[in-house]
Amino acid sequence: MNAGVFDMKKEKTDVFFLILFLTVLAHLTYVFVMKELAYQFSDYNGHVYVYLPNFLKRDTLLDAWKMVPYCAYHAVTLFFYKLALIPLDVSAAYAAILFAMFSYLAFYWILQRFSVTAKLENGSFKNMALAFCLCIVQPLNGYWMDAAPYSMNPLYNPTYMCARGFSILCFFLICDIFGRQKNENYRGYFFRVEEGLTKHYVLLGILLFFSAMAKPTFAEMLIPAVAFTMLAEWIFRIFRKNGTAKPYFQHCLFMLLCALPTLLYIFLQFAAYFLFGGSYGDGGSLTITKFLEVWCVYSQNVVLALALSLAFPLFMILLDPASFLTSEAGRLSLACLLISFLEAAFLGESGPKLLHFDFIWPLMSAMLLLFTVSTLRLLSLESHRAATLSRRILLGIAWFLFALHALAGLQILL
């Protein structure tokens, strides 16, 4: 009886703190978006006061879609504006709040599921706090540095923030699917894949498609990374000659089917973007650039920029490299980072759009994935490894770096 009462009180406490974190995040997001809207050259200002009015002026939905083919954020903003009759600036803030809270709940779900499945000692409050931090973490930087690091959480861009929650769930669902494909007894850390993969393939297709509706850049990075990872695994199985290559190839085909609707939608987006002028005209086309040609326009030291963006994950890789090379999440996150870096280093748009550096967006998504995987690994190390003095010092440094990234985010929001 006493245990039941205690569990009930704990559940009520968890709900209270969950609502508290969501409320704080909502308030910070609202204040930040309203400030951004007031700045003429901000992304929020452009999407809300330039794209949306042009969107509404189009004669047909098809013409409007060609204007903004990545339209999830705009659609939700229009819902508040047209149907709920809320002023446009407040509607834009409400849409941003909705997607920010969705991202927070996605992070919390991943952390909580991992903690329960891996039997970690950290409680739900810690996971709530970490989920909040993952929503706001930013690169380390100083005004005296000329590195210009890019953010894994570009709070100023509404379409990226709209896609973020879908991307997190999509990535960790793939990790569990990979585990189940290789071992029928695998039960899943984040999703219950032990019952079979059919419904999870469907869920993956839906999440990936919605992420592309919000912003295609995550899928532009993830799909090649998954293809690269699965192709390497398939070739490895062929050389082992143990009879597993053919069944695994069927899994590759299933994953391709999951990606086909998204690939088709991205193709249509690129057609609207490059052939019909997209959201801001100027023509242009996809082009291959010199190595880091566009990046070096904005950063005098790309290596330092990456180190500042990924200080915490890089430290975790140095601390426990084996886990990043053996775990599904670790390998896939590194593959995502590699693919997205190559996209940022070699891809661009011709003409005036070259300096927009739109192919840095996939790398931002990859950095957030690596950041999240590193957080999970740190929680696991903290719970399962022997607490020697040297180990405690190293884990303390890792938490210190994590806190610095989170404080950098708070500095932007406050």
Q: Domains counted in the coordinates: how many?
A: 1
**H/E topology pattern:** HHHHHHHHHHEHHHHHEHH
Main sheet characteristics: 2 strands, antiparallel
* Average predicted confidence as pLDDT: 90
Report strand %: under 5%
Shape type: globular
Structural category is: mainly alpha
Specify Rg, calculated over alpha carbons: 22 Å
Distance between the termini: 45 Å
Give the number of DSSP strands: 2
What does this protein look like?
The chain is mostly helical and 414 residues long. The chain has one domain (2-413). The protein has helices spanning 2-38, 43-57, 61-67, 72-83, 88-117, 124-136, 158-182, 198-214, 217-240, 245-275, 295-298, 302-309, 311-319, 321-326, 328-346, 361-384, 389-413; strands at residues 286-288, 347-349. Strands 1-2 form a two-stranded antiparallel ribbon. Helix 1 packs across helix 2, helix 4 crosses helix 5 and helix 15 (328-346) packs antiparallel against helix 16. The radius of gyration is 22 Å and the shape is globular. The model has no long low-confidence stretch (mean pLDDT 90).
